[in-house]
């Protein structure tokens, strides 16, 4: 069942009603089991969106929300005041129902899926849970909190905002289909050869309306699609593709896969070839790096930062730490400081001047809150970190503001934060 579940009336076995709040697949649910004579009709549901929702089945309303896992929640059980959850993040957690905040008038979800700032630093573009894109005048960021999404949609495998400030384009990939949207309206769609799209990234060059989609299935691949001509190139990936990144000069692509990650370089003369049908392609594989879950490549393609993984296949591939690699030698330069914290990482990026590496860490970390952490690129040392006041995980856009590194991030609650690192002269 995708993003919703139903309640059956046992006396008639007829469908009674639907409860919808999750943004991805619902994995399990449990009614409260009490040793007392309580008449409470509460239900807990868990899903691939890493959330636990508490429901009043009489009113069909959400009464509370729990966030704290950093990967899919796979199962749950509820007895008295204790809610037990298990997750692909390799943890089992017990929650106290009495500590879950109560929702009175629950607004529709306004979470942020992707976010970026315009090149002239005057506007913010945000892709929301309902796949609508809104534009905000910077720094009037509070406007997003007043946006009310009309409905939730299934969690998309990948979504990215076009880098052009003149065009409002979004690429969304999920299942076998890739959709191109403009101002929230479907413009075009493609079937991808890999079978199940899980991540996507626009070419960072504004004059190139081109994007790459990573997939996982029996035939894992990267597919580079031109939005104008609908031409595409398929690059073979070594296992499931979990994330992709594109260098700022548009010449390099890196993909996170297991058992290994791969770097490609653009070759306009078509020097490479596809292993399946020997068709000539315009991208050459130039480096093979360790297995990873998330990846970032610097502006000129010389260094790659990876959230390294355990190297297992499929859903058993899990984040384990962070390291930086030299692309030409394929050697590890260093591990990122406090690398064990990065088992809860959900995104990684270089700043555009390549001086810093920024990581978004989920609320399931040892700190108990989502955070943005910034590392010095040359040493891997931590220079700053921001802990979010809420439990909602942060999506981020990294850029330079008046010569200093800055991060614009949005969370599942619709809150947006502008973070700026002030470096000493």
Your description of this structure?
By secondary structure, the chain is mostly beta strands. The chain contains no helices and 37 strands. A hairpin with a 5-residue loop joins strand 10 and strand 11. It starts with a strand and ends in a 5-residue tail after the last strand.
**Shape label:** globular
Calculate the mean pLDDT score and round it: 75
For the largest beta-sheet, the strand count, sense and barrel status come to:
4 strands, antiparallel
Helix content: under 10%
**Low-confidence stretches at least 5 residues in length (pLDDT < 50)?**
103-109, 140-157, 273-277
Strand order of the largest sheet: 3-4-5-6
- Counting DSSP E segments of at least 2 residues, the number of strands comes to 37
Lay out the secondary structure.
Blueprint (H helix, E strand, L loop, with lengths): L3 E6 L4 E7 L5 E6 L10 E6 L3 E6 L4 E7 L5 E7 L2 E6 L4 E5 L15 E6 L5 E6 L4 E5 L20 E4 L7 E6 L2 E6 L2 E7 L5 E6 L7 E6 L5 E6 L5 E5 L4 E6 L5 E6 L2 E7 L5 E2 L6 E2 L1 E8 L1 E6 L5 E7 L9 E8 L5 E4 L9 E6 L5 E6 L9 E6 L5 E6 L6 E8 L2 E8 L4 E5 L5
Antiparallel strand pairs: 1-2, 3-4, 4-5, 5-6, 7-8, 8-9, 10-11, 11-12, 13-14, 14-15, 15-16, 17-18, 18-19, 19-20, 21-22, 22-23, 23-26, 24-25, 27-28, 28-29, 29-30, 31-32, 32-33, 33-34, 35-36, 36-37
């Amino acid at each position: 069942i995708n993003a919703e579940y139903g309640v059956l009336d046992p006396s008639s076995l007829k469908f009674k009603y639907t409860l919808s709040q999750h943004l991805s697949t619902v994995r399990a649910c449990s009614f409260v089991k009490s040793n007392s004579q309580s008449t409470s009709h509460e239900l807990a549901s868990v899903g691939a969106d890493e959330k636990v929702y508490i429901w009043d089945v009489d009113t069909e309303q959400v009464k509370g929300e729990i966030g704290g896992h950093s990967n899919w929640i796979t199962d749950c059980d509820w007895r008295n005041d204790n809610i037990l959850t298990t997750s692909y993040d390799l943890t089992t957690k017990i929650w106290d129902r009495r500590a879950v905040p109560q929702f009175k008038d629950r607004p529709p979800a306004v979470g942020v899926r992707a976010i970026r700032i315009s090149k002239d630093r005057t506007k913010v573009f945000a892709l929301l849970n309902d796949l609508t894109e809104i534009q905000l005048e910077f720094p009037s960021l509070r406007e997003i909190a007043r946006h009310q999404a009309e409905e939730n949609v299934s969690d998309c495998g990948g979504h990215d905002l076009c880098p052009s400030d003149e065009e409002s384009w979004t690429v969304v990939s999920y299942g076998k289909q890739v959709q191109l949207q403009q101002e929230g309206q479907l413009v075009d769609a493609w079937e991808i050869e890999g079978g199940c799209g899980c991540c996507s990234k626009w070419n960072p060059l504004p004059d190139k309306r081109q994007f790459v989609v990573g997939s996982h299935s029996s035939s894992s691949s990267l597919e580079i699609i031109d939005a104008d001509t609908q031409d595409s190139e398929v690059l073979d990936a070594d296992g499931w593709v979990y994330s992709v990144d594109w260098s700022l000069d548009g010449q390099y692509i890196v993909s996170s896969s297991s058992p290994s990650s791969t770097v490609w370089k653009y070759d306009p003369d078509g020097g490479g070839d596809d292993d399946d049908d020997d068709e000539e392609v315009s991208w050459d594989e130039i480096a093979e790096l360790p297995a990873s879950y998330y990846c970032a490549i610097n502006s000129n393609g010389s260094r790659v930062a990876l959230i390294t993984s355990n190297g297992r296949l499929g859903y058993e591939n899990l984040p384990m730490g962070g390291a930086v690699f030299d692309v030409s030698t394929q050697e590890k330069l260093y591990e990122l400081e406090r690398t064990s914290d990065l088992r809860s990482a959900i995104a990684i990026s270089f700043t555009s001047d390549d001086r810093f590496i920024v990581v978004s860490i989920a609320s399931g970390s040892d700190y108990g809150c989502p955070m943005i952490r910034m590392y010095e690129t040359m040493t891997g040392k931590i220079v700053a970190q921001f802990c979010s006041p809420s439990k909602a995980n942060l999506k981020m856009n990294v850029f330079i503001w008046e010569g200093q590194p800055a991060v614009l991030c949005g969370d599942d609650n619709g809150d947006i934060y502008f973070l700026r690192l002030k470096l000493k002269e």
